[in-house]
Amino acid sequence: MTGRDFYAVLGVAKTALVDEIKEAYRRLAAQYHPDRNRSPEAEERFKEVSEAYSVLSNSDKRTLYDALGPDKYDDPREVLLYRLNKEAVRREAKREDDAWRSTRRNDGAETTGVLLFFLLTFDFVIPPSVSGHWYFVFNGFILLCLAISVHEWVRL
User: Using only C-alpha atoms, what is the Rg of the chain?
Assistant: First the structure.
């Protein structure tokens, strides 16, 4: 049934929810079922309605149908190309994300390393007698920065 618009077959909008699709299918299946309707085109129409429902009620099939459209949905080459392209896009996005994360890790290590350098320099320049009780707080802060720096460097 290549080229048929399954949404039009069921008489629903492209934004229809699964419940709306199910309701339309039940209504049309009852109307065109061969046991209820003896007209010559009823059986063909029932097959169309059933195929439309099987595609639109399955989220994976529906996503593929929406992406390819009615003309290309039944073409195995188009389906394969779509899936390969989707996988290539996913791999490229992962590669870019990994590169970004690596850069961010390096930035964190550099920042904490520079901060630690200046804190240690400041610690040696100002004697404990000048800074008073803040000396211990300052040394605690230096130890914290040292721990963060080591953690960042190990993650590299």
Answer: 33
Three-state SS string over 30-94 comes to HHHCCCCCCCHHHHHHHHHHHHHHHHHCCHHHHHHHHHHCCCCCCCHHHHHHHHHHHHHHHHHHH
Q: Tell me, yes or no, if the pTM score tops 0.85.
A: no
How many of the other CB atoms lie within 10 Å of CB of 19? 8
Tens digit of each residue's pLDDT (9 = 90 or more) over 103-144: 766 666 677 777 777 777 776 666 666 666 676 777 777 778
> Which amino acid, 150?
V
Angle at 69 between CA 9 and CA 72, to 5 degrees: 110
Instruction: Please give the single-letter amino acid code of residue 55.
Output: V
Query: What secondary structure, in 3-state letters, does 93-149 show?
Result: HHHHHHHHHHHHHHHHHHHHHHHHHHHHHHHHHCCHHHHCCHHHHHHHHHHHHHHHH
Kindly report the CA angle at 97 between 96 and 102, in degrees rounded to 5? 100
Contact between 101 and 107 (Cβ < 8 Å): no
